[in-house]
Amino acid sequence: MENKKILIVEDQQDIADLVRLHLGDLGAEVTHAVDGHEGMRMACAMDWDLMILDIQLPGPSGLEICRAVRRNEAFVPILLLTSRSSELDRVLGLDIGADDYITKPFSVMELIARIKAVFRRVEALEPKEQQVTESIDLGRLTINDELHQVRLGEELVDLTAREFDLLRHFAAQPGRVFRRSELLDSVWGYGHDGYEHTVNSHINRLRAKIEKDPNNPEIIVTVWGVGYKLDAQALQAS
User: 67: which of 8, 79, 99, 151 is 20 to 30 A away, CA to CA?
Assistant: First the structure.
């Protein structure tokens, strides 16, 4: 965690101080925002390696900050803190782009383990120096790993980091049907069976960007009762 720039948005000073102390001991540079207004401003104005957002805040909530960050198309790992026992809050957080969550009260060891796991997933997606730059070409669809760029025909497609990873996962094995649980494990890395509809919402957003008619998709198609697949034949059409 050496030199990682971490933003924590938490209105409970004792929790923020505890997190700041332990992450600082691991070499991270931790900045604390005390409410949602300050958190929103700092989250959107600076580059961070990780954001830790409390859901319940004075001013904009952690969910609102998360949504704003994802709307800006900037990829930064986001971990949510919640004191609520409601599953709805956790599911909503994952749906709008959070990478993980932890429920209060939590142990510092668990929090650090979750943060390290998030960083491991991010590092696993980064191109290694010894790897040859890979590009996937499927007719009208081209995915460039090095540029993190997607073209459909002559048009650049503006995708979030998660949407890019999801599309690339499909394109790496065109025609293969993926169950929602497989996509969740491979693309999100959560291993939580209860959040498979998170996949559905991301599929819908991806379709809105690459399909001529998102209500009648031809590229990312549903295999009823099983999951989803990328139909490479649809990409050969002019």
Answer: 151
